[in-house]
Amino acid sequence: MPFISCGIYIRDHVSKSLFEFFVLFTWAIWKEICKVRHGPNPKQHVIKVQWVHSFLEEYRRAKRSCLPNPDRMQLSLESKWKKPPLRQLRLDVDADFNEQLGLYSVGAVIRDHLGNICVAASRGIRNPGTVVAAELVVVHFGLMLVLQGDFSNVWVFSDSLNVVQAINDFFESLAHDGLIILNISELLRSGRFKKFSSIRRSANSVAHSLANFALFHSSPMSWVEGSYPSWLMDVATLDLSL
Fold first, then answer.
1. How many domains does the chain have?
2. Of these four, 47, 98, 115, 198, which has the most CB atoms within 10 Å of its CB?
3. Torsions phi, psi of 104, nearest 5?
4. Strand intervals (E) in the chain
5. Range of 128's domain?
6. How many CB atoms lie within 10 A of CB 90?
7. Domain membership flag for residue 72
8. Is the pLDDT at 153 greater than 90, yes or no?
9. In the prediction, which pLDDT does 3 show?
């Protein structure tokens, strides 16, 4: 059974606390495997189990003792697209779906401080089960686009507040989409990214248009400078004129 399928099966058949332990312990094993490959001696399994228990308990105690921090939500009330700061980039991502056909798609665009498109991409995806899961897939899709293009100083935006909250507050949603959230969280800590924030749909028109385009084109598409289709340039230009 593939690991992702195994994770989904376990998620659906055990309690939230047990699944949290499973995800964190799996991550700990992966970290130790990396150590084996690169030299240092790995920890014994019993030590990893104790560490996972200690980590989860410490987190839960801290969570109970702290008031909610509004800064973690990073909800932008802006209804218009805004340029990133000088010499920085902006990644916008969005997912779309056709309920009747059962089709899901994702779109991502990276733009500079002048509003110019650096790279754009879209593709269809297999049915992830929920709209939130699709929005998580597109965040990962966009982050990988940044890494593949070797970009840095990137502000990340999604118009799904639920996804932004899930990623910024990792363990609250661990029992639902923990595996992909864990992967996204690791990427966001790579040093290439600024804040991960939520925006309104009206400020995310280019990424939404890319995702919508992918619903009707089965092949993955990507565009770099000089190859952008006219419809994409029209939407991006409209952002700058509002």
1. 2
2. 198
3. -125, 150
4. 89-98, 103-111, 117-125, 154-158, 193-198, 221-224
5. 89-241
6. 22
7. no
8. yes
9. 56
